Amino acid sequence: MKLFKTSIGRRSFMKTSVMAGGGFMLSFSWLASCISDPEKVLEMPKEWFELNGYLKIGDNGVITIISPNPEIGQNVKTSMPMIVADELDADWESVIVEQGPLNTDIFTRQLAGGSQSIRQGWQSLRMAGATARRMLREAAAKAWQVSVDEVTTEAGKLLHKGSGKSASYGEMASAASKITVPAEVELKSIEEFKIIGTPRKNVDGLGIITGKPLFGLDYTREGMLIAMIVHPPAFGKKLKSVDDSNARSLPGIKDIFTFKTYNEDYPRQWSDTSSFTELVAVVGNSTWEVMNAKKALKLEWEAFEEHTIIEESDVEEGTPITIQGGLESSDKHAELIAKYVAEPGRIARKDGDPEAAFKQATKVIERQYYTPFHPHNTLEPLNFFAHVTSEKAELVGPIQTPEYMEKTVSARLGLPLEKIDIQMTRAGGGFGRKLYGHFLVEAAVISQKMNAPVKLIYTREDDMTTGVYSPAFHALYRAALDENNNLIGFHVKAGGIPDSPLYANRFPAGAVENYLAESWSINTNISTGAFRAPRSNFIASAEQSFLDEVAEAAGKDPIDFRLELFERAKTNPVGDRNDYDAKRYAGVLELVKEKAKWTDSKPGVHRGVAAYYCHNSYVAQIVDLEMQNGKPVIQKVHCAADCGIVVNPLAATNLIEGGTVDGIGHAMYSSGMTFSEGKPDHNNFNTYRLIRHSEAPKAIDVYFVENDIDPTGLGEPPFPPVMGALANALYKATNKRFYNQPYLG
Amino acid sequence: MVNLIAYFYHQTSDLATMAQFNLSINGKQRQVDVDPNTPLLWVLRDHLNLLGTKYGCGVAMCGACTVHLNGIAMRSCTLPVSAVGNQEVTTIEGLSEKGDHPIQKAWLEIDVPQCGYCQAGQIMSAAALLKANPNPSDEEIESAMNGNICRCATYTRIKKAIKKAATY
Ligand code: FES
Ligand code: FES
Question: Chain A within 8 Å of B76 (Cβ-Cβ)?
Fold first, then answer.
């Protein structure tokens, strides 16, 4: 057994009384119990003993485990405590999970993004459980006058075989809390896991299905006011004048005022992205009254000129960034894209002599792909609760980046960091949108002005038209085949508004002798940000569609064609900067091939395949599609994933299913956001399409590659490849290739 | 049809004078004093502290706000409180006493939710479906549930859970 220094998040292991929020959290969070039977009730202990920042044990053996990271639907609130509970050797049915508040002293990386919660939390969560277990064993050894090595544990119990003595964790909790935190601790070996790797239900399940107020939008406080904002109707515009004479006199309205989200000289962090920073606030007693007052406002807007904002950088005062003027339209964007595609891009990687390869080629295939901007459309619209006084700022709501937003709020309100208290509610979806916490700052500023507790609510229309979209992306691919149908040259030129989706060192880089990757980008004043598997989402769909076409031109099976390339990357890679493990990549493809019985064909069933690696996990999918009355019906999607150790197979499967359906939805149906004179063309679900029940696949099968690799996330990896697999299946069904999203636009 | 009626009411709203309404919600009589055009959704959430019914779009396109009106699924975001009358309103809080309606039990068993935000609406639509049609086919499930968006896309599990509930 290996000993590990308890150095990670060192302060987590000091016994503190900063189990912050305790009572306060319980006032709004439904007790997240791990009992799967709603009939059973856990009895609360009389006294709690804190063993470290992640857990406390009650005198009756009930254990509270703190889940540190924001829960946005990726199920970390169940999976992260499972890891602690396993190393603690707890009985899962005696565990209660509590959402931790932002506390950088105790927890590391309290961020929901990049599918990193489990991967980066793995070691500290295990350590937290193992340290507490060690302390319990030491306490028992002391009490029983035996060697600690002879004290074993099992499901919340301490045992000493020699003397036959035993005690529950509850009985030893008080003594254990007085033991010095060990400097080193043993972690379990993989075979010893009892909770990790087993299916465990969502700890908030009962709360969700009975309608408990778990979400930010549900948060209430005595004397709380409701606030909404009005932002410019178009990108490139700003506020000119406000006439609130009618709105002010409407019933229930407390105040209407304009405010700025950030101070002029404030260097904005990456998470402060926001196009509209001068806003009109409407504050009143109830949501409906505030909505009506919003409509009664008479506002004038004007186009803004090119100007600068300050962004955080290496220098303390930040770096000025230019925001261009002008009202942008989608047809103009299309013209610009065509221009950039025709010009040489910035070379990001070059192997061999691609030009010569294309000259020598017997066949050259060239294709172009496109996807529009996308709003995230979390079903819970943006919202936040704030109560700001001169003493402190209390903020409660759905946020993926509490650690970053604490700094922003502190700067904006002029309150020191220790006076900012951020509590995270369950988020009704994140997908990247709730990384950008301007709404939290807005709530704080409004509360400060009103000197009252305030809940800021975005309407769906506000949410969909306020920006921070996934960028519009384009990719041009070229492939060169020789007379034996070997891929001798590969060229990708990818760009976007405003970011390029290119990952120059990903597959097929490393598998092709002559390779060229170029990128370009176009400025915009439309704000953009990360959207579920940012950039990978589009580039995977384009690349995987293109490879399918190249395989066809080469007369090869699309899976065999890819496996050949992986073989090359494995045995004789080109270059040494290849961002993938060809063996694991091939592994998911082989697994899905076998499970889906790829080589069997069924009449009327059209199949497409794709595989992709991003956010540290590998996913391959096969889409089985039938045409019914001229419409594609997806009968089944077969998914194979390699995310290392699977912490919670039930939740992991759910995430893969969700990511798969979401990928199909966005690639095939979602309108995407287009613009006319800076104005978003959609503002609600009456025109903006999202995938619905009848369009979802009839079945999804999920398979995991079994290995001992430390776990990686699944919030993002299943989303990109399915778009390619779908395009390839659609081709088989219709004989038409699909290059532009949405495929059925 | 449901939405058309709601839409009609929506269009005829302009006066904002307060009025008193006696509502029958989850078997209890509740009284509110609000603008007659206030959608039932906001009466539930802001005035009666029944926060289980969710807001997702406000235009009857997402189903997050689904409640039962005399046992029939209805979007509460476009239903003015003045149109409720003495019809019996059931919200997610009133669907069962302990979260043990067959639909809720199946939801737990299949572990349906991801973020969970849409699920109250999904459950209310599904419960109304099963009441009207105890053994729905796949197509019937799809058409009854098509008005409920799940942004996390838990659709396959929802269908499984409805079929499971039908077997209880
Ligand atoms: S909120 Fe009522 S249908 Fe969307
Ligand atoms: S579970 Fe998130 S919207 Fe349905």
Answer: no
